[in-house]
Write a sequence for this structure.
């Protein structure tokens, strides 16, 4: 059987964090009263004229520079014509053959090197309004009515298009996570998936391994999570391979990805560029970006996350470095290490315990947090978790938690351990018979019995001694 290579290209939209919309002065605000942030321009009253938002142009340039793009000396806005209730002008102002930023790339570090994913373009456009389907599911299917909220209409968007350079669902996911962190650090967008300020469409095809043809692709829309995207890509790759192996052909279509449904039903057949009747926007002049502005913006870009992952991977395992940086935790990690915390321990606490709290790493006092982490082996589990959960509040003092010492006194622990071993004789025999994993069960029982106060390291040491070797029959 032939082996197949997946080919994936991504189209990403991010809302810029500007104060006002792309072509009018209406505020950009998430979850405002519906239709309160509107004016004649974004509602498309006849005769209203657009004025481009300088800040949006600069943000797009900055993002393009971080993606190693060339910034066009001259960029042009085009009208992309289509009719839909969320689009009051019946066209979207977008960019077509003269986009603001072109020909870049983002280098994604991997466990055994790096992969550069080409960026075809990063251009500016405006978002559409939001259709609100009145139905329990929030989806158009089965809705009794559809309302339109024009607040989002005209929000500045950057569209980023990658080359079809991605060859696995995992690389696609890692690319998206790195891109998101890059955007957040540039401070041009919140890039919050849940709020829709970062959305992506995934184009997928497969080809015989070793060939460089580009076969018919399908597009998955409705991606609002990195894991769903990876899952949708895996599923689509498998579907296309099955079709080819059965002698069929793949149709070019847009599929609606629903993570709760095994299928991705077709949404509509893909429009071609000519269907949009693109033409230059007659109400706007071309955008000229002076070289000194480009250089000023370039100067505002700090060390990018991809570079930091590679640097930190010299100290930590690649996976840990990746999780810290894409989680926005590496700056705090470096401070904790500076305070004398073991690098691996600091990474574990941040990636596992701290990340789960949803706390902002910038709000943490590293010196106090370091004290808590260093005291971890001697304090109760509960005190440690409560400490972590408080670490990002202004009033956090490690001492409150580091005083709650764990019970490591063998004389106190032994009777509890003996009682639990006696009550679970069957499990103890199974352990001795080779089921070594049961040690965790016993530690858990002792922790429960002591109300989380026992020192788990001492407990497992004592358990090992008392149980004797675990040897398979
Ligand atoms: P369109 O103009 O129809 O949107 P583009 O050429 O702009 O098409 O490509 C859209 C996206 O699809 C890009 O991210 C590109 O990398 C990707 N893409 C193009 N051809 C393929 C293919 N054969 N397989 C997978 N992805 C593709
Ligand atoms: Zn407006
Ligand atoms: Mg396109």
């Amino acid at each position: 059987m032939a082996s197949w290579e997946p080919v994936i290209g991504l189209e990403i939209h991010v809302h810029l964090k500007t104060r006002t919309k792309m072509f009018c002065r209406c505020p950009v605000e998430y979850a405002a009263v519906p239709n309160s942030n509107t004016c004649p321009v974004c509602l498309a009253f006849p005769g209203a004229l657009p004025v481009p938002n300088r800040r949006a142009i600069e943000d797009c340039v900055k993002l393009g520079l971080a993606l190693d793009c060339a910034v066009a000396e001259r960029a042009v806005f085009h009208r992309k014509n289509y009719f839909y209730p969320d689009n009051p002008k019946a066209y979207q102002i977008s960019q077509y053959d003269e986009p603001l930023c072109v020909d870049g790339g983002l280098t994604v570090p991997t466990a055994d090197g790096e992969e550069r994913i080409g960026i075809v373009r990063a251009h500016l456009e405006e978002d559409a309004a939001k259709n609100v389907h009145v139905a329990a599911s929030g989806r158009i299917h089965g809705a009794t009515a559809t309302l339109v909220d024009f607040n989002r209409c005209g929000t500045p968007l950057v569209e980023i298009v990658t080359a079809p350079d991605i060859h696995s669902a995992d690389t696609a996911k890692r690319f998206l996570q790195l891109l998101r962190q890059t955007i957040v650090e540039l401070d041009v967008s919140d890039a919050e998936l849940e709020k829709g300020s970062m959305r992506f469409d995934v184009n997928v095809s497969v080809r015989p391994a070793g060939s460089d043809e580009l076969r018919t692709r399908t597009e998955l829309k409705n991606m609002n999570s990195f894991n769903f995207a990876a899952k949708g890509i895996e599923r689509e790759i498998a579907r296309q391979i099955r079709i080819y192996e059965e002698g069929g052909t793949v149709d070019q279509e847009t599929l609606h990805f629903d993570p709760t449904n095994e299928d991705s039903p077709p949404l509509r057949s893909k429009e071609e560029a000519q269907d949009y009747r693109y033409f230059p926007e007659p109400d706007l002049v071309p955008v000229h970006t002076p070289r000194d502005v480009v250089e000023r913006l370039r100067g505002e870009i700090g060390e990018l996350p991809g570079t930091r992952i590679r640097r930190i991977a010299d100290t930590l395992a690649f996976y840990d470095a990746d999780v810290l940086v894409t989680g926005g935790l590496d700056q705090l990690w470096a401070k904790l290490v500076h305070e004398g915390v073991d690098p691996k321990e600091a990474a574990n606490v941040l990636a596992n315990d701290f990340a789960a709290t949803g706390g902002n790493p910038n709000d943490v006092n590293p010196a106090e947090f370091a004290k808590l982490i260093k005291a971890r082996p001697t304090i109760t589990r509960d005190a440690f978790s409560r400490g972590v959960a408080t670490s990002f509040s202004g009033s956090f003092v490690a001492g409150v938690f580091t005083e709650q010492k764990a019970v490591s006194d063998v004389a106190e622990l032994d009777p509890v351990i003996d009682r639990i071993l006696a009550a679970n004789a069957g499990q103890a025999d199974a352990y001795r018979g080779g089921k070594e994993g049961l040690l965790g069960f016993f530690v858990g029982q002792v922790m429960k019995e002591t109300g989380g106060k026992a020192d788990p390291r001492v407990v497992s040491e004592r358990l090992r001694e008392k149980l004797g070797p675990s040897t398979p029959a």
About this structure: The pocket of magnesium ion (ligand 3) is lined by residues 161 (CB under 6 Å). The longest helix spans residues 226-245. The chain is about 35% helix and 20% strand. The radius of gyration is 28 Å.
